[in-house]
TrEMBL record, chains A, B:
Residues 35-54 bind DNA. One of its GO terms (molecular function) is DNA-binding transcription factor activity. Pfam families: TetR_C_33, TetR_N. Residues 12-72 form the HTH tetR-type domain. Gene3D superfamilies: Tetracycline Repressor, domain 2. PANTHER family: HTH-TYPE TRANSCRIPTIONAL REGULATOR BETI, HTH-TYPE TRANSCRIPTIONAL REGULATOR RUTR. This is AcrR family transcriptional regulator. PROSITE patterns: HTH_TETR_2. It comes from the Bacteria. Keywords: DNA-binding, Transcription, Transcription regulation. SUPFAM superfamilies: Homeodomain-like (SSF46689), Tetracyclin repressor-like, C-terminal domain (SSF48498).
Amino acid sequence: MTATERRERQRAERHQLIITTARELAESEGWEAVTTRKLADKVEYSQPVLYGHFANMEAIRDAVAVECIGEMAEELRQARLAVPESEAIRAICTAYLDFAAAHPAAYQAMFSLPTKVKWASAETPAPLRAAFGEIVSAFGPFNDRNAELAELIWGSLHGMAVLLNSGRIPEEAQEQRLDLLVGLFANAPE
Amino acid sequence: MTATERRERQRAERHQLIITTARELAESEGWEAVTTRKLADKVEYSQPVLYGHFANMEAIRDAVAVECIGEMAEELRQARLAVPESEAIRAICTAYLDFAAAHPAAYQAMFSLPTKVKWASAETPAPLRAAFGEIVSAFGPFNDRNAELAELIWGSLHGMAVLLNSGRIPEEAQEQRLDLLVGLFANAPE
DNA sequence: CCCTAGATCTAGCAATGCTAGATTCGATAC
DNA sequence: GTATCGAATCTAGCATTGCTAGATCTAGGG
């Protein structure tokens, strides 16, 4: 059975290659440039091969999104553990906004473009849970209140990321804005 | 010159008809169903007529977005003026989330789908300024600090709207979440 | 060495955004 | 009233897209 095993492995490698290539293409030329033909060209297979791995183009973008969310979760974790607990909230916020700024196309796929990725249900992918868990952890143990705080600050961060990306907010006042945000959430009434 | 005046007026009416029809189509069937052919059919003109009014499909969606933002600004204003000043923040928040829930396609065009609408520059459309101004007003007079608070709470509201719409947040805890949000921003340190 | 099953490609369909060129319509001048 | 000219509008079609059916090739077992 080693033959079919190898086939399985090669198939998995190609699956990952498609995701990686789609992400690179999106980061360098924008998501509207990620077409089935261009993507098939870059991975050096024909278009139908893509459909052997994914149901459609949207599924490919969703796969990129999930991968990127996992990556961001890891960066949030690193940032949180690198500072004393009292500074965890600020560290998480900074890491979040840095990720959004560093990978705009990835961030789009994660939170702006249409998607079929479920955030709430039973089939929510593990990386999504991990990312949310990191934000909650900045507030302390996992309970209802901290989860609510996490949802709220996440919303604020998303808003800031979008506004920053669209050039609405000047980058210079960013530190001050972060101070205000962190202050609000640190002083949250019990 | 009354002839050309009438032409101008009819042209403006048709311009509005296109926007209105596009919005209706989006609300009833989703934005992916708003194609040039379907839209042209509904307004009972041929496709090229659309391009006599708008540069492309995205410009039509942007026009819908601006109109809807203006509508939301008016609803925020009504909500704010209907309650004592001390409850303005909560009133604005509720009105914002209600609008997002009541007009999901409009909300998508406003804040989720790709757009060329500028929020920050000199050519920012008046309705956008009005909407932002309403949120600022909930905090008091227009100054830097209140503008920052407005940006932050706006981000939080946007996050909540998206999460609500995608089914992530259960609707039942909504009141409690609003209490938390309003409490955070009402207790903002000077 | 052949034969089958799976993997892969070629070729093409339907739908999309957008536009050039033909055609129709309406206002103006005589 | 009619001819003329310009604007308004449509017909027809192009290029590109996502996606797929059917042909072709290839690897692995008998």
